[in-house]
Design goal:
With 191 residues, this protein is an alpha+beta fold. It contains two helices and ten strands. The protein has helices at residues 96-106, 160-188, and strands at 19-26, 31-36, 39-45, 59-62, 65-71, 77-81, 85-91, 112-125, 130-145, 154-158. It is globular, with a radius of gyration of 17 Å. The two termini are 16 Å apart.
């Protein structure tokens, strides 16, 4: 079941000149987390890792610390799980610090993201030196960062209508998947 956290209306509530969006993580895309003694150690987030995760009050920060720039509970942050990863969209208009962050993202000084979470389940493959995160227990924050662990993350400043179009596109994809899932359940006689 796709994740659609408190902003079911999507970016419609984010009518802001300080709109940003991006991916805090990607799924099924291994990245080098450490290099030690000539060996690389990888991490990968499984596509189903967010199923059942506590995402009740995720915040947006810079480098996982300091001020809060956006928050789900005040409808300035939305997060959506899609095929690529954990998509975020935020209104950075509510404080001077948040507006400064928007300017740094817009100017290209900050271009990547990360996220803070606790793990419920994982596995390790010694041959490939890859840790696979199978289940996330709780998501704490999504952060714009100077140096990401996962180089495939991104964050960009967009104008409101381009951002709205992207979020509505994501919502249509999610509704379509939900409808196909429902049809399959009916066909299989589950409901």
């Amino acid at each position: 079941m796709p994740l659609l956290m408190p902003m079911e209306a999507g970016a419609k509530r984010l009518n802001s000149d300080f709109y940003v969006e991006g991916y805090a993580t990607t799924f099924n895309d291994p990245y080098c987390l450490y290099e030690y003694d000539g060996n690389k150690y990888f991490e990968v987030i499984d596509r189903g890792a967010l199923e059942g995760a506590d995402v009740s009050d995720v915040i947006m920060q810079y480098n996982h610390s300091g001020k809060v720039f956006a928050r789900q509970t005040n409808n300035t942050l939305g997060i959506l799980e899609n095929e690529k990863g954990l998509f975020i969209f935020a209104d950075l208009s509510k404080s001077n610090a948040a507006r400064d962050m928007y300017d740094e993202i817009k100017s290209g000084l900050i271009t990547r993201m990360s996220w803070a979470f606790t793990i419920a389940s994982d596995k390790y493959d010694r041959d490939s030196r890859t840790r696979t995160i199978l289940r996330i227990k709780k998501v704490y924050d999504v952060s714009a960062v100077s140096y990401p662990a996962n180089p495939e993350t991104e964050i960009t400043a967009r104008d409101y209508f381009n951002g709205l179009i992207e979020v509505e596109k994501q919502e249509r994809l999610l509704r379509g998947r939900d409808l196909e899932h429902l049809k399959l359940k009916i066909k299989l006689g589950v409901i």
